[in-house]
Structures are given as C-alpha cells and as structure tokens.
Amino acid sequence: MKAVTMADVARLANVSKSTVSQYLNKRFDYMGEDTKKRIEETIRELDYRPNIVARSLKQKSTTTIGVIVANILHTFSSQVIRAIEDICHESDFHVIVCNADDNPVKERKYIEMLRAKQVDGMIILPTGDNVDIYNEMFDEKYPIVFVDRTVGEIPIPSVILNNEMAADLGVQHFIDNGYKKIGIITNVIRNITPRRGRVNGYKKALENNKISINEQYIKNLEIGKVQEGLKDLLALEEPPEAIIAGNDLILIEVLKYVKSKNIRIPTDLAVIGIDDVSFSTFYEPALTIVEQPAYEIGKKAAELLLYEIQKKELHGENAIYQFEPKLVVRESSKRIGNSVHTIE
Amino acid sequence: MKAVTMADVARLANVSKSTVSQYLNKRFDYMGEDTKKRIEETIRELDYRPNIVARSLKQKSTTTIGVIVANILHTFSSQVIRAIEDICHESDFHVIVCNADDNPVKERKYIEMLRAKQVDGMIILPTGDNVDIYNEMFDEKYPIVFVDRTVGEIPIPSVILNNEMAADLGVQHFIDNGYKKIGIITNVIRNITPRRGRVNGYKKALENNKISINEQYIKNLEIGKVQEGLKDLLALEEPPEAIIAGNDLILIEVLKYVKSKNIRIPTDLAVIGIDDVSFSTFYEPALTIVEQPAYEIGKKAAELLLYEIQKKELHGENAIYQFEPKLVVRESSKRIGNSVHTIE
DNA sequence: CTGAAAGCGCTTACAG
DNA sequence: CTGAAAGCGCTTACAG
Predict the structure, then answer these.
(1) Residues on chain B touching A282 (C-beta within 8 angstroms)
(2) B78, B111, B120, best to mutate vs chain A, most A CBs in 10 Å
(3) Which terminus of chain B is more exposed, N or C, with fewer CB under 10 A?
C-alpha cells in the first residue's frame, strides 16, 4: 500500500495542499462550503490519513511524552503510568514507557533516545544518578517532572508522597495501641529519598512520644536480605513487637517469613505496611496499611507536565507537591493482648 | 535553546550535510580520517543530537511500536508489557502503551492515532470488536501481533495461553485428589476467547474422567457479581467442594468471600486459581495455581513483531503460538479430609 | 573521498 | 476564499 499523501488529496479534490491542510486543522473560517465538501469526500474516498511525523517535524511537537520508571511491574509504577496515560489520552498525547531498572546507565540512554525522538516532555522516577543530564535539561527548559523522589538541588517540579507522614501514621497508630517496641524495615536500592523520609518519620513519631530510638530496630535492606534481617530482629534480646514494612515488596517478604516461622499476627508480631497490596483486605488477619495515592500522584505529574508543555510556563517553579498518605486500620496492627494499657 | 541541526555541524566542520549524515550512520568506508575527527569534535562541541523525527519522515520508520492492552493494572498486561519493552530495548525500539479498557471505541481510536504517528507495528490484546480495522491492517500488511486472544478468521499471528490445558490441569488435579464436585468461575467481560477455552478445558477434563457435567457449576460472571455467584453456588443442594477461579481477579473475589463467610480452605472448599498472584506462597493456606508464562508470551509477541518489521516477512503466517500453563501445587487444593478415596 | 540536489509529507506566512 | 513557495531536519542516489 503506497501511502496516500496530502498531495494526492489536493490533486483529486482540485485544491492546493494548503487548503487541505487548512481543512485538516479545522480552519474553516474562509473556506467555501463546496471546497470543504470536496475535500471531505476525497479524503474518505482515498482513505487518507495524515502523517503525524511530517507534522511533528514542522511543528516541533510530537504530542508524545516519555515516562521512565524503575520497573513497570511494581504496583506503584503501574498505577502512576495508568494515571499518566489517562490524563494524556484526554489531550491526545501518547506515552512511551521505559523501564530503567534503577540503573543510571539505562536511564541515561532512555533520556537521550527520548529526546532524540523529540518527545515533548518526560516524567521520571529518577534513579538520582544522572544529575548532569537533569541539570542540562532543566537549563534548556525541557519540560520534565519527577515522581516519587526529589533530586538534590535541581528545581524540577516533583510529585511525591509525604513520606515522613507515612511512617509517622504507622508508628503513631502502633503507639496508640500500646506498642513501644516498634521496628521498621526499608529497602536500600529502591527509592532513596522515600526511604530517608520514612525513617525520619519513624524517628520523629517515637520522639514525639518520648520513646527512645533503638537503632537496632531500624533495618535497611536489599529485598533479598529481608528474611535474614527479620530473623536478626526477632532474635534480639528485646525483639520488636510491631513492625513497619517500608513498602509493598518488603511487606511480602515479612509475610513469607511469618508464614515460614508460624508467627502469629498480630499476637506475636503486629504489622503495618506502607503501600497497598491486592490482598490487604482478605489476608488473615486483614492488613493495616498506610496507603499511598499512587493514581493521584501520577495524575498530578501528568497535569503539571502537560501544563508546562502547553503553556510553556511553570518552569523553575521548583514546587514539590506532596501527597498525603492515608492510614487504613485493619486487623494486623491490633493492640497487644496482654497490654497493661487501658486505652478505651 | 534553538536546536542544533545537522546543517550547523556541517558548516562548522567545513563539510556537507551528506558527510555528517554518513558519519552518523557509521558509513566510514570512504571517509577521511581527519574529516571523521573534525565531525566528531564539532558534534561534541555543539552538543548536537540528531532529530529522529526528521529521519523517521525520510526513512519511513519510527523505531516505535504501539501496545494496546485493556488495562496496564492487570498483572498479566504489565508482565506482557515489561517483556515487550525489554525485547524492544535490545533493538532500540520504543513502546507506546495504551489502555483500551476493553472498549472497542477507545481501541479504534488508539489504533488510528498510532498509525497516524507511523508506529512500525502494534501488539494488541484485542477487544475483538474492531474486525474491520484488523482486516484492513492485515490487508495493508501492517505488522501486527495479537496477544491473549485470537480474533475470528483473521490470519494475524497470535500468542496465547493454551487455555484448555490451563483448566484441564486444575480440574485433573482436583480429580486426582478425590474431588468430583468441581465448579469454575470465569469472567464475562475480559478475554472472551480465553474464557471459552478454559470452560472447554474444564468440561473435557470432567468428561475424560467420566464425571458428568453440572451446568450449575459453571459460572460466568462480571467481576462485581462474583460474590453473589459464589453464594448461589454454595447454596446449591449439592454445592461444589472445589472451585477453579478463572483468573487472578476472580481468585481475589473468591478469597474475599471465603474470609467474610469464615469458610476454610481447603476443608470446606478447595481452590485453584488460574494466573499467579503475589501472595500465592504465603497466603494461608498457600494457593495452588495454574501459572501462565506471561513474560514469555510478551517476549514471543515482541520477537514476532520485530521480525515482521525488520524482515518484512512472516505476514499471513496465521500462526497461533500457544504457551503451556504450569500447575504449581500448594495447599489450597489438598485432598478432602473425609475422602473415601485411598489414592496413596 | 565528498558535495549539490531532491525529497520525505506536512504547515505557514504571504500574496492576491 | 485559495494557492505558490519555503522550510522543518534529515537521507540518499548520483556525480565528480
């Protein structure tokens, strides 16, 4: 099938390419009714479809954005992408999805390729290790929005969770339920900034309640080391009675460990997870979760980016948009049976 | 930042655009060493980056493909996309992801937009309701691969699960464990073809074992109606003692119901799910699952598509590539306690 | 070994 | 109300 071009349409309809172009762009202001009709019919007859690549070259806009995540298989990422795609679809933008696997080299390559392909902007869950390119893009006023993490001193708009609050909500809830020996496990690799925020929130919540911080209760582990870390934690002289899982993957590791050791939740160990999981409501016991509004975060990021692309403003706002987590109390964080506390 | 173009490089390096182009395309056969050096330096100096849109216009290839799924939030879809993206990345292709939400109108719009953007091919989890476009694309030799479902009579290569086998594996396992009253719940909306295959497999397995088919045991429901359907099922005079959940979403609904009614698995009701879930190993009891090789399926689809794009062959192969599911036995399908069977 | 020229399929002032 | 012409930034025969 040799492609039908605008020139073909013009010839058959006995008008110039300009006029066909006007028609396509719905600039009918000065177009004769019959010209319009003729073009319309010819287009249908030839089954003509405009070549957007040609238009993009001229207009310097591809109505396409790039999204770089660590891994689309992470629930958070897929929710963010879904939201971005929804918002983009409303404005007839498309989204190219890239998995950087927390690998700065891969991230760099994707960024360069995406720019070469002239995407109108990017939303990145940054590895954080390509500060030079981030800066270069910022200087060139290239539209870009970060999600999930902020990066150092670069004033690029970032949409993130209030991570301190996330941990604080969990810890405070434990304390309110009579727990004092509370541990937290976070993930080294993924999400450096979120982890720091979560650990800070954890510490502050304890301080606010005049509970001294036990550094042994704070574990920062690769996902493959969580089982081991838990073992160490529970082998302490005074093991924690409650634990915060810093994200969904860690929660899963915790639950695997719990099952393998026949530990009862919450009797032996109370658990709260940050990030929702598909089984939180029907797991036995149902899981108390600090939920992250992933869809809202992705939506906001897309809105910011499209705004920046379309209005050419907003640049250098350096705004950090923080979303609030929500504590959903279920059974896994219930107060300790033999609590001496008599809170209600 | 006014973009640097090839013309700028050519001027500064004192060569023609042709030569710069040769350089970029690594056609060094006849290029003088110093010319090469000069171009290389100039490119670095100017921080020149080729505009791929311009190249695409000329070469009629965007090194971009489109993927249309129902919803990226479904585990299967995200695994398929991840695989596709991995394979494409190896060949420096990018992938545009679209969510059609099982909506033929949305699907049609995406297909048209993607073609207008000149993507080199598409991988579609088809709604099945746009046979006219599928046919049109097929006739135009537009590279396209279906995943998860085949569509009627169109000879477009399709990569799918052996759905009959999936259900058969589950049913046979139940039977081997002494179960005879076996129900199956499938999803109306999603995956029409897979559902039919699974129900067929279910029936055949029963027939092979000379167990008569009870139509009341076959439920075909929207996801929101699963709870209700389960209730009906278990209220039958002779309720099923074992159940196959036709996909991950249904399995989740089953587990919710089970929890709300304090039904014990497998004692009161044995369960097998088709499609893996994140909690299969540590759910109590651990879940027996018929796993679908989603990543492999996506990989195959991408390989087929890239092959078709690059070699311009394979068209009209009408091949249906079926992948085999795998039964992973855990605790939720254990033999009935009071079984009169004495199979080992 | 390198350059001039045409062309990919559009859009957009500008002229009439 | 419509058309001729230039141009977006590349690639590619072709000539020399």
Answers:
(1) 252, 255-256, 258-259
(2) B78
(3) C
**Boundary-marking domain end, from A276, A292, A308:** A292
Widest CA span of chain B, in angstroms? Answer: 91
Q: What pLDDT sits at residue A232?
A: 96
A121 touches A262 (CB < 8 A) = no
Q: Considering the domain boundaries, does residue B331 fall inside one?
A: no
Residue B340 lies in a domain: no
At residue A190 the predicted structure's pLDDT band, cuts being 50, 70 and 90, is low
Asked if the model's pLDDT at residue B340 lies above 70, the reply is: no
Q: How far, in Å, CA of B214 to CA of B181, rounded?
A: 9
The sheet that has B94-99: what strands, in order across it? A320-323, A158-161, A144-147, A121-124, A64-69, A94-99, B94-99, B64-69, B121-124, B144-147, B158-161, B320-323
Is 50 exceeded by the pLDDT of residue A339? no
Do A201 and A237 belong to one domain?
Answer: yes
For residues A188 and A148, membership in a common domain is answered with no
The CATH number linked to B45 is: 1.10.260.40
Distance from the Cα of residue B291 to its chain's centroid: 13
Q: Are residues A126 and A242 in the same domain?
A: no
The SS3 assignment for A249 reads helix
Domain of B259, in residue numbers: 163-292
Instruction: Render pLDDT for A230-255 as a digit per residue (tens, 0 to 9).
Output: 999 999 999 999 999 999 999 999 99
**Percent with pLDDT over 70 in chain B:** 93
Same domain? For A218 and A146 the reply is no
Alpha carbon distance B246, B195 (integer Å): 7
Residue closest to sugar C1' of C9 by CA: A54
Q: Are residues B180 and B281 in the same domain?
A: yes
Residue B56: inside a domain, yes or no?
Answer: no
Letter for the amino acid at A104? Answer: P
Residue B251's nearest CA partner among B162, B177, B332, B161 is B332
Asked whether strand C has any atom less than 7 Å from the CB of A46, the reply is: no
Tokens of B310: 């690059």
Task: Determine the distance between B17 (CA) and C5 (C1') in angstroms.
Answer: 12
Q: Chain A contact for B113, CB < 8 A?
A: yes
Note the pLDDT of residue B343. 43
Kindly list the protein residues whose beta carbon lies within 7 Å of any strand D atom. Answer: A 14-19, 22, 30-32, 34-35, 54, 57-58, 60; B 3, 5-7, 17-18, 21-22, 24-25, 48-51, 54-55, 57-59
Q: Is B333 on the interface with A (CB under 8 A)?
A: no
* A265 and A240 in a common domain: yes
Q: Give the other-Cβ count within 10 Å of B32's Cβ.
A: 11
Per-residue model confidence (pLDDT) at position A336: 64
B314 pLDDT exceeds 50? yes
pLDDT at B262: 95
My answer on whether A148 and A212 are in the same domain is no
Domain count, chain A: 3
CATH of the domain at B175: 3.40.50.2300
Do A191 and A264 fall into the same domain? yes
Does residue A187 contact residue A250 with C-beta atoms inside 8 Å? yes
pLDDT in tens, A127-186: 988 999 999 999 888 999 999 998 877 889 999 999 999 999 999 999 999 999 999 999
Position B89 in a domain: yes
Cβ–Cβ of A94/B94 closer than 8 Å? no
